[in-house]
Amino acid sequence: MKYEIVSSEDTIEVCQCASKHVPRPLRLAVIRTKTGPVTLCPTSLMNLSQLLWELDLTDGDPLGSITKHYGKYIRDLADQIYEGSEAGVH
Ligand SMILES: [Zn+2]
Questions:
Q1: Helices of type H across the chain
Q2: How far is the CA of 16 from the centre of ligand 1 (A)?
Q3: Domains in the chain: how many in total?
Q4: Quick check: 83 pLDDT over 90?
Q5: CA of 17 to the centre of ligand 1 (A)
């Protein structure tokens, strides 16, 4: 997964993992997806990266005891990116 780090002062985009981030992160990551760029806070970037690793490790089928540690937003995003990479989109 490729991403770009941006200063939160340089973007109005926000991470969708929670309704509000307090305090607002100083840096955000922008990843590219099939449906366009997605902005993530550092926690979401780390969680997404870890879940994609789990998906790779298990051929897309990690145990529920693993996925339960990730929120729906990150699980949906990881599924979308993982399926896209299987189809050769990335
Ligand atoms: Zn977030």
A1: 42-57, 64-67, 72-86
A2: 6
A3: 1
A4: no
A5: 4
Judge whether residue 89 has pLDDT over 50.
no
The rounded percent of the chain whose pLDDT value lies above 90 is 86
Q: 73 is in which domain, residue-wise?
A: 3-86
Burial class of residue 14 in the structure, from the number of CB atoms within 10 Å of its CB (0-12 exposed, 13-18 middle, 19+ buried)? middle
Centre of ligand 1 from the C-alpha of residue 77, in Å:
13
Q: Residue 6 C-alpha to ligand 1 middle, in angstroms? A: 14
* Of the candidates 30, 34, 35, 75, the residue with the CA atom closest to the CA atom of residue 55: 75
Output the CA 90–ligand 1 centroid distance in Å. Answer: 23
